[in-house]
Amino acid sequence: MGIRVGIVGISGFGGGEALRLIASHPSFDLVYAAGEGSAGSRLVDRFPGVPSTLAELVIQEWNPATLPQLDVLFASLPTGISAEALSCVPKDMKIVDIGGDHRYVDGWAYGLADVWPQQIADQVRVANPGCFPAATLNALAPLLADKLIEPGNIVIDVKTGISGAGRGGANSQFSYADTNENLQPYGLLKHVHMPEIAKTIEKLSGGSAAGLVFTPHLVPMTRGVLATIYCRGGATTDQCFASARRFYAKRPFIRVTERPPQTKWATGSNLAFLSYAADPERNLVIAMSVIDNLGKGAAGQAVQNANLICGLPETAGLDGAPVWP
Amino acid sequence: MGIRVGIVGISGFGGGEALRLIASHPSFDLVYAAGEGSAGSRLVDRFPGVPSTLAELVIQEWNPATLPQLDVLFASLPTGISAEALSCVPKDMKIVDIGGDHRYVDGWAYGLADVWPQQIADQVRVANPGCFPAATLNALAPLLADKLIEPGNIVIDVKTGISGAGRGGANSQFSYADTNENLQPYGLLKHVHMPEIAKTIEKLSGGSAAGLVFTPHLVPMTRGVLATIYCRGGATTDQCFASARRFYAKRPFIRVTERPPQTKWATGSNLAFLSYAADPERNLVIAMSVIDNLGKGAAGQAVQNANLICGLPETAGLDGAPVWP
Amino acid sequence: MGIRVGIVGISGFGGGEALRLIASHPSFDLVYAAGEGSAGSRLVDRFPGVPSTLAELVIQEWNPATLPQLDVLFASLPTGISAEALSCVPKDMKIVDIGGDHRYVDGWAYGLADVWPQQIADQVRVANPGCFPAATLNALAPLLADKLIEPGNIVIDVKTGISGAGRGGANSQFSYADTNENLQPYGLLKHVHMPEIAKTIEKLSGGSAAGLVFTPHLVPMTRGVLATIYCRGGATTDQCFASARRFYAKRPFIRVTERPPQTKWATGSNLAFLSYAADPERNLVIAMSVIDNLGKGAAGQAVQNANLICGLPETAGLDGAPVWP
Amino acid sequence: MGIRVGIVGISGFGGGEALRLIASHPSFDLVYAAGEGSAGSRLVDRFPGVPSTLAELVIQEWNPATLPQLDVLFASLPTGISAEALSCVPKDMKIVDIGGDHRYVDGWAYGLADVWPQQIADQVRVANPGCFPAATLNALAPLLADKLIEPGNIVIDVKTGISGAGRGGANSQFSYADTNENLQPYGLLKHVHMPEIAKTIEKLSGGSAAGLVFTPHLVPMTRGVLATIYCRGGATTDQCFASARRFYAKRPFIRVTERPPQTKWATGSNLAFLSYAADPERNLVIAMSVIDNLGKGAAGQAVQNANLICGLPETAGLDGAPVWP
Prior knowledge:
- Four copies of one chain form a homotetramer.
- With 325 residues, chain A is of the alpha/beta class.
- Chain A folds into two domains: 3-129 and 297-309, Rossmann fold (3-Layer(aba) Sandwich), CATH 3.40.50; 131-293, Dihydrodipicolinate Reductase, domain 2.
- The first copy, chain A, has helices at 13-23, 43-46, 82-86, 117-120, 131-145, 176-179, 194-205, 237-247, 295-309; strands at residues 3-8, 28-34, 72-75, 94-97, 109-110, 125-127, 155-160, 184-185, 213-218, 225-232, 254-256, 272-279, 284-291.
- In chain A, the strands form two sheets. Chain A has a seven-stranded mixed beta sheet with strand order 8-9-7-10-13-12-11. Chain A has a six-stranded parallel beta sheet with strand order 2-1-3-4-6-5, with helices on one face.
- The C-D interface holds C 13, 16-17, 19-20, 23-24, 47-52, 163, 181, 222-223, 252, 255, 257, 259, 265-266, 268-269, 271, 273, 319-325 and D 13, 16-17, 19-20, 23-24, 47-52, 163, 181, 222-223, 252, 255, 257, 259, 265-266, 268-269, 271, 273, 319-325.
């Protein structure tokens, strides 16, 4: 007898990826889907390849007053929309919010599942990290915990595939001809992901994240995030690797790799690949992290968090190998 | 207790995709992998994201004399190599050959699983169709069976992603800078896939496939095959759709769609999407078919065939939704 | 003393490419630009790399009543818009219309410049062929003129980069995430380019184009068109090549090639590459043609036509080599 | 009467782009081409779209002993090859070396043309900067000269299209299927471009470039380089812009832009776009720079340097607009 789950925001990329993962999850039964632009359609009209068992599910208009009974609700709504949309959901309904409105909000666990699963496991409300924080914080956590780097003046240079920018507003400017074969920085100096990154750095290190720098870049590919993070610290490369391997020894989705990581290693999976290169002479530690922005950066980590709060094996429905090439 | 399977040709794209599918197959246990260019490496060295349960499996050099006991062997070797390589495999070992050497060879079933599963089910040796035949024949089968088109003078114009050209010889010419943002026809007038297409057309129709035309084109994307097939016949569009829906009513992987199909609908799955557009005034029937060349065009159909010959549910390990976007 | 030219529809891809070509044309001076979505902006705001000599030109709102005196007006407006927009332009102002509204309309020459330049040279109004007709007709013209193929039952399978679909209406559906790594057919059975293709086939052959079939496909790349054309005829490959070489012996932009053509050979230029493969046994002639849809398929051919009607060397401003890789 | 030029290394991307630019240069006549992998072929066999005036030029095997008389030789050979290959060229023959062997070598000017054209103008031997230094140094030069940033501890995070990795050795690993839809860092901690970057920083600032960090990343696109450079300094954004606008006021190829730059703005041209974002509170100055790695990063800057040493207008043959979209 399955766990009854629903998805609101089914039209976005995060919602669509949640659908894919939930469809082959051994314990989750998708019984409800809602989306703004597609209410009234069947799932198969929006997702021609959706498994036949789900094909006829009709997408609803979101109305918390008429929600069926759900064990877990996955929300993947644009930033600014989620807070209001979820405010009337029954207090005892578990929610994993892939969107940004509930991160570090009282009553919501910050769902950095690979780092503090125990803080998530008995929660009712989980705020999934943003995709850039997911990539970045996984790489930094061991180094901060082991004091191998300073928590301040960290420079994060992130490169993201285009699906990292969602489906709505922002995405409408990503016409193929303007975006293909093109690369650009955006969100200079301040970006909506910075607060959660700074707070987590401080939580993990006990120090100050002052001087944090974060620059995202749009890359002409569909999926994938690579964070190249420049930190101050006198650690050696070996010390960084040892730290990360210890920190994540029991965590099923983190792979520490000596080869510089490639985004494609993670595509279609909930994996993160971490690597390090340090030069004590320059007081420099470079941390690198790749994830699939829709996997570990959104729906993958959301399902992982849902597994945690439902008391399921953490890897349930998430053990598929990456899609290569 | 799992079914013991092996893969020879693990370094190629077909072998890699077989690995991905087998890794999450509920009944198959991968106990053996062999590959020319990677013997001695562990699977995780070649496939950084491979599930940890398989990470330490060491890739062997192919030697049929020292094969472990396997229930099914998947072979994904270049054309011309497979015949000799598999000739010494114990006669009772089930083999699904993704490569081309055994198609329409005595003792081997031609593995067009969606069309004649019953002819495959009790076989020991199955020759997987090539990716272009897989796409093409699925679309044509109903029309040929129902005599809605003539079997002769069929014109097949195929467009394929670059992974449809394998990893060895031919692929070495596909350097990124030469291939990106570029499209070209190749294999004009005759192509290695034509004989199996012609034979199957004749088998399905009882008529002659004389005048068959087939032109493949390389498209700058990794996965995906679209076949646009121009046939002679006086059928209407409705008749074609009705025929296909009847023919595939019980087949789990074939989706008949009124919307013109997009290759991405199938990416990462074993699905095929078929569509039709006919104009009796021009005695014209256009059949369209999309598959993932590594899915239905190679490893997906191979696993489907293996399920059939092992008496497993046909969809075992193949019910994952396509990866989108 | 330059020839005063203007561009209306500067915001579209055809208009933008016309700008690029005119900017380095030895005889054309761009003195006027108009565009719907960008009126009031300077050219450099829309085209950051525009040569400094043109940077400050302000884009006007289109108003034929207040047109400055121009020697040639290039129009690149969406189909359906051009007819009305150009109706009030002074009768003696030369116009080259890249859009579709004036093809085969009385008073307008059909600007198939590589085939009948003499019919264009003394005109005042030229309707540029569509990009698919430009590719297709160049390949067919010699074979039709030399009666090497039948004019009827020609099957044209065209593959186009995304910029072939313009900037407005249709393009808004080409979001990057939906379009990247994806291929699809569209415009099945009838397409707006068919009438001009059929008329030209009949004009060139003196026969009937009945049974014409045309299927375009969207390909995930920015520029490039490849037409693979299946014709009936008993000619040999050598006869086709000899015919094309003779027909285009003096035409500067047509390259007849024995190697199957690649779209990238033409990118950024006004070149067309043609090739042929025939099999008399199957009464089959395959003609192949590649162009840059914004070059020979739009602005390149427009500038070539403008050169013709202005009595300039045909290659003026069009002798740049393709951009490779 | 043209200036007689030759290209050695015609098979590489730099050599091919030099061919394109020289072919439409008003003063340069290409009379000699040599290449390792293509000796004996005609230019049109290697470059199907090469202008007909150059089509029949036969590619020679490189032999300095049998060089014709040339005014300028462009060399685009792999690093490590150039030094020996050019060592026997007549001392009075002008050479512009696109490759890396002569940068900051006695007797060779470092060809940072937009920054110190006067140091290049009367030279016989010019070493073109590498593509990453070309992008980086153009952005930093004004800030270093005006002491708006510290010369030490500069962090350069560079993203490059695949043609930035050349044609030989390194490029053979860039197979399409491995490279498409993938992003990865490489050359961690030390890269061959670092010495010339460090030396130039010191030359421009009079200070020490100690602590320089440089990390390149491969991006799935053909052309384009974006450098995101993190510097220490208390300058404001406005001060940075004012500095750059002053510094480059008379330089024809540098565009200072308030909008974050996109690589595609430069594609196919010799332009560089620079932008800045600073936050005095964090003692942070971010400089951004985009170029076409084959334009300003190789052949474009090489032609610009050749114009300088030949006493031609600097923009000769380089005023073409970028190719968009």
